[in-house]
User: Which sequence fits this backbone?
């Protein structure tokens, strides 16, 4: 059998267990600027423009101060979304692989369509937040579309003898 | 592409569920093939034919529309 580059089925559960709390923390961070004091740390940065004296100023390979909550949430959300999106179904077969690929294409179209609309109609600081959400939306759209189609086909199959 | 899996199942008296287990795919897959929503791979077609002890051509047939570009 050729490899299908998917994780084994149990990663799906692990993914959800990490995803839900990360999402809650993420929303707390975005809505209430939730930043616990103990996560104020010094970090190594390849590029840093946080203390820039003017706009195009960038420091290379330096040490900077940050609150690590957004880094932690970002990485956890990406990894857990990957686990949910790309672990095998219990009965992964060729038909499910086809739905998987179609859903990935669909999610890419939708994601970039929304991005184009945002480029045209969102300006200033709001556009920064569009880009932040865009980091996660392609996987999120995939997960929603894929599971919806799988559920629908399961339902149709169940209604028949 | 047409197929007569439903008829062959009736003859053999097995359900979609049972057939799916015999050819090691999910139940949705058999359902989607029967209703013409999914064209199975050569491998799966061969397995299905084998279960019914027929050739692939007995189970699956080309339709006029299969020759038109989609």
Assistant:
């Amino acid at each position: 059998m050729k490899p299908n580059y998917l994780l084994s089925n149990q990663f799906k559960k692990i993914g959800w267990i990490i995803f839900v709390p990360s999402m809650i923390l993420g929303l707390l961070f975005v809505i209430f600027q939730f930043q616990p004091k103990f996560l104020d740390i010094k970090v190594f940065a390849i590029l840093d423009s946080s203390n820039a004296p003017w706009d195009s100023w960038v420091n290379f390979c330096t040490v900077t101060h940050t609150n690590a909550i957004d880094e932690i949430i970002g990485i956890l959300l990406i990894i857990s979304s990957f686990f949910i999106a790309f672990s095998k179904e219990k009965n992964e077969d060729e038909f499910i692989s086809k739905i998987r690929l179609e859903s990935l294409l669909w999610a890419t179209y939708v994601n970039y369509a929304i991005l184009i609309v945002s480029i045209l109609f969102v300006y200033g600081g709001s556009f920064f937040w569009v880009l932040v959400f865009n980091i996660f939306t392609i996987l999120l759209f995939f997960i929603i579309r894929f599971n919806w189609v799988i559920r629908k086909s399961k339902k149709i199959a169940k209604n028949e003898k | 592409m047409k197929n007569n899996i439903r008829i062959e199942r009736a003859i053999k008296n097995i359900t979609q569920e049972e057939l799916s287990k015999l050819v090691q795919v999910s139940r949705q897959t058999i359902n989607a093939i029967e209703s013409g929503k999914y064209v199975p791979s050569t491998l799966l077609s061969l397995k299905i034919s084998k279960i019914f002890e027929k050739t692939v051509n007995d189970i699956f047939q080309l339709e006029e529309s299969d020759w038109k570009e989609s």
Notes: The domain at 2-59 of chain B is CATH 1.10.260.40 (434 Repressor (Amino-terminal Domain)). The first strand of chain B starts at residue 2 and ends at 3.
